[in-house]
Structures are given as C-alpha cells and as structure tokens.
Design brief:
GO terms for molecular function: DNA binding. InterPro entries: CheY-like_superfamily (IPR011006), NreC/VraR/RcsB-like_REC (IPR058245), Sig_transdc_resp-reg_C-effctor (IPR016032), Sig_transdc_resp-reg_receiver (IPR001789), Tscrpt_reg_LuxR_C (IPR000792), WalR-like (IPR039420). It comes from Conexibacter woesei (strain DSM 14684 / CCUG 47730 / CIP 108061 / JCM 11494 / NBRC 100937 / ID131577). This is Two component transcriptional regulator, LuxR family. By secondary structure, the chain is an alpha/beta fold. The chain has 2 domains: 125 residues, 3-Layer(aba) Sandwich (Rossmann fold); 68 residues, Winged helix-like DNA-binding domain superfamily/Winged helix DNA-binding domain (Arc Repressor Mutant, subunit A). 54% of the residues lie in helices and 12% in strands. The chain has 12 helices and 5 strands. Strands 2-1-3-4-5 form a 5-stranded parallel beta sheet, sandwiched between helices. Strand 4, helix 5 and strand 5 form a beta-alpha-beta unit.
C-alpha cells in the first residue's frame, strides 16, 4: 500500500438543481481513487445545510439554483466551515461565476469539461497550491474587473514585502507554488510560507481570492505578462 492509498479520501458534496447532472457527477467522481461523494443537494439552502452536517472538503456548486443561488450559498459555506467551493458552470463568461469567486469560491470548471479535467479541478481545489485552469480564471477575472478600478495596488504595497509582492504577481499569472519556486530559485516550502503570509495579510482564504484582490486593486492589471 502506498502513502497515497493511506490518505483520507477527498470528501465531496455535489450541489445542483438538475438531478441528472448530480447523478452524472456522482457516478464519475465516486469511481475515482482518493475521492468520496458524501452527499448531494438540489438547491442552495440544502447545500449550506449539507455542508454543515457532512463536513466535505470540496463542494461542487452550481451557480443558478432555486431558493438560494450558488453565489450566496458559496458565501455561507465558506463562512461556515473549512470546505472549499468549486463552481460547476455552463458558461465561463457568466457574471455569476465571477461573483461566486468573489464570494469565496476556489475555482470553477465547465460542465462540458472532460472527466479528467473535472477530477483534476477537484484535486487542485482540495490541495490549494495552484489555480484551477489558470488561463480561464485569469481571463474571467480580467474581463470582470472595471477599468481603472482600485488604487493601483498602493495598499498592497504597504502591507506586502518586496518578495511577497513579487510572488503575488506570479500567483496572479497562474503559477503554482512549484512554478514560483522554479522562477525565483526558491525551495517550494519557502514559497508556501510566503503565500500563506500573503493570504493572511490580504485577509483572504486562498490564492484565487488573492488573485481577485490583486486585479481589483489594480496591483495587477489585465494584460500584464
């Protein structure tokens, strides 16, 4: 038995108002090693309640649901526990998706994604060391940020060290901890420490929200390399 086999499986909650979608996701994910579907929810209220009762690691959240949409459900799930939220959506340019990211979602994946892409997205969100589909995520955030918004990152520059600012710019480009370590010739654990400090200083939960803050403040602007 390998070390990976001995790890606790990633616990998943599926929230979607379409029963066929929920069933398809359950069938796909339940057959993957290291993943365990612990529950389903048909609307936002049920998703919040199930997240509290079942303590999943990742909630796969539809954004357009009755009674309580996925944006507010995401906000409540993130505020109420340790679960991370992966938005599962039909359109990558949906304003609802960006609002869900602002509400605390750790990433998004398209419903038309290949099965292996969905599984990869779940594992990335659970691990928290890189963005889910960095190009799509950056494009969505850049498109959604109002031109000229923010203070040009002045506040961030007062709270971040020079090294932390450098790392945040690389994270905003979609780099994982390993990528940043290679770029700056640092140990991966050193990068992890810096990223953790960045998140604490920005008062955000994970790197996706850090990227949102970086763009909305003007610290990073659309089109930056």
């Amino acid at each position: 038995m390998t070390a990976a086999d001995e790890r606790e499986p990633i616990r998943l909650l599926i929230a979607d108002d379409d029963g066929l979608v929920r069933g398809g996701l359950r069938t796909l994910l339940a057959n993957e090693p290291g993943l365990a579907v612990v529950g389903e929810a048909a609307d936002g209220f049920a998703a919040v309640r199930a997240a509290q009762e079942l303590d999943p690691d990742v909630v796969l959240m539809d954004v357009r649901m009755p009674r309580l949409d996925g944006i507010e459900a995401t906000r409540r799930v993130v505020a109420g526990g340790r679960a991370r939220v992966l938005v599962v959506t039909t359109f990558e340019h949906d304003d609802y998706v960006y609002e869900a990211l602002r509400a605390g979602a750790s990433g998004f994946v398209l419903k038309r994604a290949e099965p292996e892409e969905l599984v990869q997205a779940v594992r990335i969100v659970a691990g928290g060391e890189s963005l889910v589909f960095p190009q799509l995520t950056r494009a969505l955030i850049a498109r959604s940020v109002q031109p000229g918004a923010g203070d040009g990152g002045a506040r961030l520059l007062t709270v971040l060290t020079e090294r932390e600012a450098e790392i945040l710019r690389l994270v905003a480009r979609g780099m994982s901890n390993a990528d940043v370590a290679d770029e700056l010739v640092l140990a991966v654990h050193t990068v992890k420490t810096h990223v953790a400090r960045i998140l604490a200083k920005l008062a955000v939960r994970d790197r996706t929200q850090a990227v949102v803050v970086a763009y909305e403040s003007g610290f990073v602007r659309p089109g930056d390399a």
